[in-house]
Specification:
With about 180 residues, this protein is α+β, with helices and mostly antiparallel strands. About 55% of the residues lie in helices and about 15% in strands. The chain has nine helices and six strands, in the order αβααββααβααββαα. The protein has a three-stranded antiparallel β-sheet with strand order 1-3-2.
Amino acid sequence: MHKKQEAVIEGILFAMGESVKVASLAEALEISGEEVRELVGQMAKRYAREDRGIQIIEVEDAIQMCTKKEIYEYLVKIARQPKRHALTDVLLETLSIIAYKQPITRLEVEKIRGVSCAHAINKLVEYNLVCELGRLDAPGRPLLFGTTEEFLRNFGIQSIEELPSLKQEQLEEFRQQAEEEIAP
């Protein structure tokens, strides 16, 4: 029965081409989410052991089949180089603020950065690293922003909780550097 369930998971992940919620897989197979994770774990180990060109990853309670990084150079020869978005210092700084403070409004990001961030946020949305999460229940109902699954994939993490934590000394050092930069 496990082989058939693994085949179903593999077929669904291949056909969808994007992440599929564990709960959706569990519902389709009529098994628990824990059983889905166990099957996916076995499949991932087998793919690694057999040195296959694909891998299965988990991203925020969803499963996705994707090409292994080691295959990328060969994939480029066939598919031409996919457009890689260059993340400037401004975009990285804005993205890191959103990642650590989400959900966050554009004005809150601008308050932290001290400059307008509309262009940077629009670029991050265009690159699918940031998305609109809804609106804040406040005057003007400003948009709230947060990171996407694409952000997690690009940075090789499964959830926001895996972001490195900053120590108080680092925060103080960053604050001091920022004050020195704005001092006349």
